[in-house]
Structure to design on (113 residues):
């Protein structure tokens, strides 16, 4: 039985095709996702464990956006931190002590934490 390489990405799959077939494939123009711009607005990054049975939560407050935009920002932060979270009462809550990562990502999307 021959040893088979495990395919982990599309480029690995592309390598299975002969060169003549690779040139025939259409090039996909996938649009880039809209990047969020905070326009230099100041936000507060806090750590809280009150009322959470001792569990720590990183809170981002001071964002004044519509609920859809808040959910988008929360999704970006959750993915970057590799943690769960939610939007409650106009604040974004990220599980765990992720103050440094959240601050870093907020600066990257042009907020002033």
């Amino acid at each position: 039985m021959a040893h088979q390489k495990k395919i982990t990405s599309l480029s690995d799959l592309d390598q299975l095709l002969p060169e003549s077939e690779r040139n025939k494939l259409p090039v996909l123009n996938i649009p880039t996702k809209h990047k969020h711009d905070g326009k230099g607005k100041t936000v507060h990054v806090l750590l809280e464990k009150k009322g959470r049975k001792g569990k720590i939560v990183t809170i981002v407050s001071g964002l004044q956006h519509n609920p859809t935009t808040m959910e988008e920002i929360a999704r970006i932060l959750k993915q970057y931190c590799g943690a769960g979270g939610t939007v409650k009462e106009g604040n974004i809550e990220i599980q765990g002590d992720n103050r440094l990562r959240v601050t870093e990502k907020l600066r990257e999307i042009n907020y002033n934490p």
In short: The beta strands are 44-48, 57-61, 85-88, 91-95. The chain has a mean pLDDT of 85.
